[in-house]
Design brief:
The complex is a heterodimer of chains A (about 325) and B (about 130). With about 325 residues, chain A is an alpha/beta fold. Chain A is about 30% helix and about 15% strand. The model of chain B has no long low-confidence stretch (mean pLDDT about 90). In chain B, strand 1, helix 1 and strand 2 form a beta-alpha-beta unit. The chains are: A alpha/beta (about 325), B alpha/beta (about 130).
Chain lengths: ~325, ~130
């Protein structure tokens, strides 16, 4: 019998939701486990990193990496798996675009540490201890990974072959992606293994969109009683659908929650946020400057909403991991 | 110390600004001048890309109110400017680094003056801070 293909699944700066989505394959996961040899999966199985380090290069057929690059441990693990793998797939919004952890890039490392270890009202830290990369205790040296100044996407740290966006990616797309790799039936390198249309194309609410959309002020979802079948934007509720790739199965839309943009920009678009801003501007029908200002001020936390999943890969936010970490060290 | 000379990218509407002047005579006096068919054509990503590429300020010149050749392109971009100010602020770029002027100047003589004014104002702010 031919040797099974080796697959590694690993989380970096991630919440584990992507791994949980793999577990959500249910019975299909047994077929996957039969077809391949899983050599690493910290969420579900016990393997040692050392055994990966001892493998010859390019021994692993596919590495599925979720999560952003937040600290030196994530970077090391990403680099190790890149070296040992033939194909690396970035899975989930964090690995593809930086994800929610990427919003931390609007603050400095010092701001974050001061808040988390000193200023937050629930913190009790009378000695003012902050985590250090190295601490000497009783003659022994303890180490922690270095916390970077910036959150990076996976492809800012290593070379990535395929992208599978979503927060988390739906199980159907995961199984399609794994099968495509196993069958060797893959699109060109750098492709995103998801549909190529905007969410609005498949949104069930789109059918009841008014002919001319007119927004006078922005509403949050709890502030208005929106028609459960009509377009969110028509009710002034921010929905990222027009600037977001589809493939998610409209899971949020179906439970009356507007799109937050976890599938990232459409093919060929760098930065969905400015594209969405242009859309939004054209839907606003207020005229005088003071009215425009008032309407825009009713958009609560626009930057947090627009960049919720994409700050590290956005036009103004992207950085090269190599450059930043070398400058920092 | 080197004198700081703010780099301004100027997008201007072809229907309102400088269309009577020969681009070869007025063009060289204005660095980074990008005439476009209508100020409404300027996408928000063009503005962000200008800042990404190192611009210290972006100036948009559109037609005065009611004079847009395409009905309301200038008005559409004015709304975008208000929205982008919020984004720039979050990235640590002062909102005043993006301005929009609505007027008609067929010979474009005002363009170098407006740029000089903006440069003067921005030199007080200094270079764009990295986030």
């Amino acid at each position: 019998m031919a040797e099974k293909l080796k697959v590694a699944i690993c989380w970096l700066g991630a919440c584990g939701g992507c791994d949980a989505s793999i577990v959500d394959l249910n019975e299909v996961i047994l077929q996957v486990a039969d077809a391949v040899d899983i050599v690493l999966w910290p969420l579900a199985m016990d393997f040692k990193y050392r055994s990966i380090q001892q493998m010859p290069d390019a021994e692993i057929a596919l590495s599925i990496l979720s999560g952003s690059i937040r600290n030196s441990d994530h970077q090391e693990m990403a680099e190790l798996l890149r070296k040992k793998s033939q194909v690396v797939m970035a899975m989930g919004a964090c690995a593809c675009f930086g994800g929610t952890p990427g919003l931390a890039n609007f603050h400095s490392k010092d701001d974050i540490f001061n808040w988390v270890y000193r200023d937050a009202p629930t913190v009790v830290n009378p000695d003012g201890n902050f985590p250090q990369p190295e601490t000497v205790r009783n003659g022994g040296k303890l180490t922690l990974p270095h916390f970077f100044e910036h959150v990076f996407t996976l492809d800012q740290a290593i070379d990535v072959d395929y992208y599978l966006p979503g927060c988390p990616p739906p199980p159907e797309l995961i199984v399609n992606a794994i099968n495509a790799v196993l069958a060797g039936d893959l699109p060109p390198k750098g492709s995103t293994l998801a549909p190529r249309k905007a969410l609005c194309d498949t949104c069930p609410r789109n059918q009841r969109k008014p002919n001319r959309m007119e927004i006078r002020s922005f509403n949050r979802i709890h502030e208005v009683e929106a028609d459960p079948d009509a377009c969110f934007l028509a009710a002034g509720i921010i929905c990222m659908g027009p600037a977001t790739r589809n493939g998610c199965g409209e899971t949020c839309i179906r439970i009356n929650v507007p799109c937050r943009g976890c599938f990232g920009p459409l093919p060929g678009v760098v930065g969905s946020e400015p594209k969405f801003l242009s859309t939004l501007a054209s839907l606003l029908v207020v005229e005088r400057d003071d009215e425009i200002k008032e309407a825009i001020d009713s958009f609560d936390d626009p930057v947090g909403y627009l960049y919720r999943f994409t700050q590290p890969s956005s036009i103004l936010g992207r950085r090269s991991a190599k450059k930043v970490t070398e400058e920092g060290s | 110390m080197e004198t700081y000379n703010p780099k301004i990218v100027c997008f201007s509407c072809n229907f309102g600004w400088g269309y009577l002047s020969d681009a070869e005579t007025i063009g060289p006096t204005i660095l980074n001048w990008i005439p476009v068919v209508c100020s409404g054509k300027i996408d928000t990503s063009h503005i962000l890309k200008a800042f990404r590429a190192g611009a210290d300020g972006v100036m948009i010149l559109g037609c005065s109110e009611g004079h847009c050749h395409f009905q309301d392109g200038n008005y559409q971009t004015r709304k975008k400017v208000f929205l982008i100010h919020k984004v720039l602020d979050a990235f640590g770029i002062e909102p005043e680094r993006l301005t929009m002027e609505l007027d008609i100047d067929p010979e474009g003589r005002k363009i170098p003056q407006l740029i000089a004014q903006m440069q003067h104002h921005l030199s007080g702010l200094g270079p764009v801070k990295q986030v």
